[in-house]
Amino acid sequence: MKNQEIKALTVEELTERIKAETDNIGKLKFAQAISPIENPMKIKDSRKLIARLKTELRAKELAN
Fold it and tell me: Which residue ranges does UniProt annotate as crossing the membrane (predicted)?
């Protein structure tokens, strides 16, 4: 997801995406613990996406 796409999301959409990505990273970590996943960079990418989403959410909260 690109930064322009993130900036276009509403506060509710950002909150939903953060929750979905948090669930996704939990599943990825669990799968990695059981047996190595095909692309372990997905965990890192998911963490960074959550950080970008939270940053934009905080910026929108401060703007209001």
Answer: none
